[in-house]
Every structure is written in C-alpha cells, then in structure tokens.
Design goal:
mainly beta, globular, nine-stranded antiparallel sheet, three-stranded antiparallel sheet
Length: 187
C-alpha cells in the first residue's frame, strides 16, 4: 500500500498518529512547513518530543533558554542534522527565520531529563554495506539518539543517506531495542 499524505491548510502533514493513521507506529510524526516568522510552540504533559530541521533556517528555544540555537540546513540530503529532544512538561519553540520545514516526533514517556540539542558534531555517523553486492546496499546513517545514548527515550531519531541509484534500507536488518506496546512498560 502506498501512503502519500498531503499538507493541510496550516502546513502540517501527518505521517502517523497513535490514535489515527498508521497507529502501529506507536507515535505521532508530523512534518510542518513554517513560513518565515512563524513560531511553533510545543509542550506535552505525558509525551517526549524530538524536532528535526529538514530545511531552512530556524531557532530552537527549549526550557527557558537551556537550549537557544539557530540552525540552517539547505535540504534534508545534507549530512548536517540539527534536532532537539525533550521530555514531558518541557516547553519548546521553533521559530522560522526563513521558510523552513521540520519533522516533529512524539510518543508516550513518563520519564524526565534535561533537553538535548543534536548537531553534526555530536551525531554518530556509520557506513553500512560498502563492500557488499557491488556497493548496492551502501548507505551512511547518522544517529542523533537511540537506546545507546538516550536510554531514557522511547524513540530513535536518525537519517539514512543512500547512494544515488542504490538500494534503500536493504538488506533486511533489525535494530536492537526494547519492543513494547502502548503504554510502554519502560515508563
């Protein structure tokens, strides 16, 4: 089945929702198109949240200034990820300094931690499949957070950069993590 959602009138595209489309993902994932000057306020009573800059120029403000960062990214194919990750009850805002696009990922999590800002300097970059099948499975993965560096989280955030004309997310593989059904027993 092919799923290709559209943006609504406010510039929001729903990829999955715990109580809506694709609920088996156990999280809410949205893409927002923000016009220059737009401000998105985020704070969740029972959920953790991560926001990834896809393209544009934005300012992240989290927890009354604990994170106050301006980030610029030409497009999502640049290996320059910028993201924030924060726990329930933490206020965050994303201000578009030019027309921008962001991804917002949310899921259940009762734990609390200090907010984290991810940038190209503190992400893990790994190459996989380089010498296999004539390079057909070669890809570079940038991991912002996963179970290894954020054991308090119920999510993973990363990007896969495939080589032109090569396979994406192949061969079949797995990511070791604690699988759960909602609500998470990790909470």
């Amino acid at each position: 089945m092919i799923f290709k959602p559209d943006y609504d009138k406010s510039g929001k595209k729903t990829l999955c929702e715990r109580n809506g489309v694709n609920p088996e993902m156990l999280m809410d994932i949205y893409v927002y198109k923000l016009k220059k000057g737009a401000n998105l306020e985020l704070c969740f009573e029972n959920d953790e949240c991560a926001v990834l800059l896809l393209s544009g120029d934005i300012k992240f403000c989290v927890a009354d200034g604990k994170i106050d960062e301006e980030c610029k990214r030409e497009n999502p194919f640049q290996k320059t990820p910028y993201a924030i990750h924060f726990s329930r009850g933490t206020s965050a805002s994303v201000t578009a300094l030019e027309d921008s696009e962001i991804l917002v990922q949310i899921t259940d999590n009762k734990r609390q931690w200090e907010p984290v800002f991810y940038n190209p300097d503190n992400c893990l970059y790994q190459e996989f499949g380089k010498g296999q099948w004539g390079g057909a499975g070669h890809r570079i993965v940038s991991t912002m957070f996963d179970l290894d560096n954020a054991p308090y989280s119920n999510m993973v955030m990363g990007e896969v950069f495939n080589q032109p004309g090569k396979w994406s997310s192949y061969p079949p593989h797995h990511h070791p993590c604690l699988l759960y059904t909602s609500p998470s027993p990790r909470d």
